[in-house]
Amino acid sequence: MNELVNKLLAAFPRGGGNSPGDASARKLVAELFALGPNVVAEIVALLKPAEEGGDAQARLALHNLATMAAGQDDAARKAFATALAAAIKGRPSGVQAFIIRQLQLCGGPEVVPALAAFLPDETLGEPACLALAAIRQGAAPALAAALEKAQGRLKLVLVQNLGVLRDAAAVKPLRACLEDESIDLRVTAAWALANIGSGDDARRLVALARREEGYARAKATDAAFLMAQRLGESGEATERTQLLKELRVLGDGSYVGGAAEKLLDAAEKSR
Amino acid sequence: MATSNNKLTRRRFLQKTSAAASTVFGPFMIVPRHVIGGQGQTPPSETFGAALIGVGGQGPNTFKAMSNGLNVRKLAECDVKFLDRADNKSIYTDFRRVLDRKDIDLIAIGTPPHWHALISIAAAQAGKDVMCEKPMTRTIAEGRAVVEAFKRYNRVFQVGTFGRFGASGNANNRQTHKIMRSGLLKTCEGVVIHRGGLKIKEWSGDPDAMPAPVPKNLDWDMYCGPSPLKPFTPSRFGGTHRKWWDYEGGGLSDMGQHAFDPVNWTWGKDDTSPVEIEAHAPPAHPEVTGMWGWVELKYADGLTFVMDGGEWDTPYDRKKERGISLADLSAADQEKVKTLPDHEPLLSFAEAVKQRKQAGGNAEAAHRTSTLLHLANISIRLGRKLRYDPEKEQVTSDEEANRLITQPMRAPWHL
């Protein structure tokens, strides 16, 4: 296997502006893929940290195998993704981050536990979290569990991506973040709660907007508008109208008030 | 809170004279002379405070284009490479502090594309109007978010390409536009082929590029922003960012909005997207953009756009270029088209700002053009034919493609 993989990789282009002038490289990808998921570990062994370089062919090959796997039936995709996840351990962190980004493209619920293991890591926590946010299915509990002990930047990353996943179970810890000393965390938690659409938090978002200034105020206000949108989508028309009226007062005389007025008018006309 | 006329700000003046409701904007304040419009000063109704965010490359030209037809005072410049000279009074490294300023009404955005959507959205949330360099966005999801933000806050957006203004002045284009928008042409046999001029090789990256120390004047974390934080490489910054998927999409993203925006207007596709996309390209590198041959994009009504790069493998030869004319319609439908009114003239940015209407290159139109480029690049990167739903803005049955349409961002940045 090793010799065959090396032979195929040696024929691989490096990519970018160095592609051969025809479609022959596509056949190389197909030949590599046909060797099965075991080829993953062999190629991963050839990946090097960015400061060493010299692995452009291996990176091109692995990335295109991930892409090819993503386009197969679920069993084939799963087998490849599982092999990728198994190959992360023990590699330099830059290589691990590269593999995690391939899982962001081709991974599914089968690799959630492997990615979740990296959530507490200062360097790999964010790439792992973004991969989990892209995978979506089965990811929220892993993020929520990691949030319990997270601090600083990792906490911010987890709060944001629990919002991306619209995890209703995360509302309580997100709510606590509205009072945090970090502006980024307060404003990100506001957006996350709004995206989840937890109507109980509508007043909290308006209160936050009143307290903040400048950019943070604009973001908190927009979170409240997003909450109004989510309330409308879930059929909570009365709560939506009430929130928009509060936004009209908050933004009285300005473009914010105008935005709320426009939405209230549209709701009135559609009755 | 009462104000007297001689303390009106520019925006308050516009609100009183426009059709919109006019009320007091904010609390009583001391207003500078230039706002009052004393001797030798332009009156407040005609002067706009403005800032340029992203001063390299096309940035100054974007600011100039934004200022056309308006009296503009540049009050701030912002760039992540200003660590050595930022004073947070007129020179900034953090765009959020620029947007905090109430005396700034207009924002010109000249950053690389991975920042275009976020800064545009934040500017709209802060009540500013925006002229933003092309390509409008880095992903399709970003484009939709920009559209929604400008709609929500009734702000003006114009993308930094203007070919559609010229296209809409051409009689043949106007007829094509009228026929396509009439709804009478049920099956369109039009084929538009754009050949060359997409700088594919020029903006193809070097996969062997090596990391280097971060320059002392550069805030690298802020530069990366929503994109993954990776080791600094000189070519990731300063014009050559076009060669990296993290920030742009190669020559297709750089030149495609110029090439296809007039086409999109002419063929009446400012509110929809293709349903089938197929690329002929070699395997793509995960980090750097590369070579490709052609991309074919088909709409639901049969119209075909082709991007024929002309720099890799054999040229596109599936279909021949074909326009449409009244002869494509029945005699009765031809008469109907002849009675249709001409399209509304496209408003310049200056006209849109003054009248509080949509600019000719507004967010939805620009988003639909940049969607063509993003779909093309996704098909190039995946090596697969895509089927796209223009309403849901999702690819059908291809999860990986959808993960390129919507890409999670590095905190605290999100759509």
Molecular structure report:
The complex is a heterodimer of chains A (271) and B (415). Chain A is built from 16 helices and no strands. With 271 residues, chain A is an all-alpha fold. The N and C termini of chain A lie far apart (68 Å). Chain B is an alpha/beta fold and 415 residues long. Chain B contains 14 helices and 12 strands. In chain B, the strands form 2 sheets. Chain B has a 6-stranded parallel β-sheet with strand order 3-2-1-4-5-6, sandwiched between helices. In chain B, strands 7-10-9-8-11-12 form a 6-stranded mixed β-sheet. In chain B, strand 9 and strand 10 (304-308) form a beta hairpin. In chain B, helix 13 crosses helix 14 (399-405). The longest helix of chain B has 20 residues, at 363-382. Chain B is globular. The chains are: A mainly alpha (271), B alpha/beta (415). At the A-B interface, helix 2, helix 4, helix 6, helix 8 and helix 10 of A face helix 4, helix 6 and helix 14 of B.
